[in-house]
Amino acid sequence: VNGASAGEAVESTLRLVVWIGSPDVTPNLPGVRGVAVHPTSTTPGGVIDAVRDSGITGPDLKVRAIVMVDPDAHPMRSVASYAALTVLAGRRLDVVCGERVLELDRLDRALRAAPTPPRPEEVPTCIQVGAEHPDLPSFQIDGPALAPEALVALRHARHVRLVVGDNLPAAFTSFVAIAALRSRAGQERFPLLVRGGEAPDPEPLPDGVLPRGFDLDTVRAGAFELKRALRASTAASTAPRVPPTPRQQSFAAAADADIESVLAELGTTSPDGVLWHCPRPLRHTNGDANASMKVEDNRARCFRCDAEPVDPLRLVADVLDVPADDAALWIARRVSPVASS
Ligand SMILES: [Zn+2]
After folding, report:
1. What pLDDT, on the 0 to 100 scale, is given for residue 244?
2. Three-state SS for 309?
3. Most buried residue among 115, 255, 327, 330 by CB atoms closer than 10 A?
4. What is the pTM assigned to this prediction?
5. Residue 178 — φ and ψ, nearest 5°?
6. What is the whole-number distance in angstroms between the Cα of residue 39 and the centre of ligand 1?
7. Taking Cα atoms as reference points, which of 165, 107, 162, 112 lies closest to residue 138?
8. ∠ CA(245), CA(326), CA(314), 5° rounding?
9. Position 301 pLDDT exceeds 80
């Protein structure tokens, strides 16, 4: 697609610009709301904090929105910020990077509609996209047309590493293509961002060990939690300022229940009295054989499952996969609230 004409078509209906870059140089388009996302650390938590601090919400992204990326912005943080924004939006947003307009929504839909090649007998454990690696099969992605062997590898490899260098448009395009090809019914899988030369991780990784690189699946989980929290706070802020309802009181009591008692009721244990086994062992490659849940300030966080510390109410809702009302009831029946401090 010709960049200039696409850019003009976009501008005529544009309502929101999300600027990934320094807030000091946010582009100012007349009549268009602008927000800046500016992570200051290359960690999943740093990226989620930056998206939260921008004040942007899922409903904000329902309008005609575009992501503009500062060509000088930190490449990994930029791709990770975009990944988080796509989770908030529930779709891929088009990107303007320097002179380039990247129609990533269209690319995403084209690749999701592509027929699934049959799973070969031998599936590579790990592949790399964007640069060669001495020990890994590697591929380049620059659009929807992919060689059959690349399609098969991208869809079926256990892990995909994406090399993020100075070519930001290539990195954004590759991210969207990888995520589209690897999505399964109800389950997204994002790649691991690397610089390219890192040795591949052994498979499976011991529990408690994070993959080498910047794990966009952790960013995805954090963005999903942020979306949920924003939805809950919007619902709370639109309610009239009246004394808390019994429902709100039950949520507050459940969130204040003693976290260790809740973990015990969920059937998990702490071998050393410090770290707990995760109550979601199926999400772990080895069933969380080595305890990996940290408990602090009456909140728990599993390195694998939680992008941030969660209170008992959120933990139970997630573990049992039930709405907050059911989780609050479940807790109230088993654990009494911590004496108010
Ligand atoms: Zn876990």
Report:
1. 75
2. coil
3. 327
4. 0.67
5. -65, -50
6. 26
7. 162
8. 85
9. yes
210 contacts: CB under 8 Å, gap ≥ 6: 218, 303
Instruction: List CB contacts of 333: < 8 A, sequence separation 6 or more.
Output: none
With tokens 């709301």, the residue in question is 33
Element (H, E) at 255: helix 246-255
Q: Cα of 292 to ligand 1 centre, how many Å?
A: 7
Taking the C-alpha atoms of residue 55 and residue 34, their distance in angstroms, rounded to an integer, is 11
Token representation of residue 317: 């809702």
Residue that has been written with the tokens 């009456």 in this structure? 298
C-alpha 280 – ligand 1 centre gap (Å): 5
**Which comes out higher in pLDDT, residue 206 or 121?**
121
Distance 221 CA to ligand 1 centre (A): 12
CA of 281 to the centre of ligand 1 (A): 6
What is the number of helices (H) and of strands (E) in the chain? 11, 13
Query: Worst-scoring range by mean pLDDT, 105-109, 143-147, 217-221?
Result: 143-147
Centroid of ligand 1 to alpha carbon of 139 (angstroms): 32
- Interval between CA 245 and ligand 1 midpoint (Å): 32
Whether the predicted pLDDT of 280 surpasses 80: yes
Neighbours of ion ligand 1 (CB under 5 A): 278, 280, 302, 304-305
Distance from the alpha carbon of residue 215 to the mean position of ligand 1, in angstroms: 15
Query: Ligand 1: distance of its center to the CA of 275 in Å?
Result: 12
What tokens appear for 200 in the block?
A: 């591949």
In one-letter notation, the amino acid at residue 80 is A
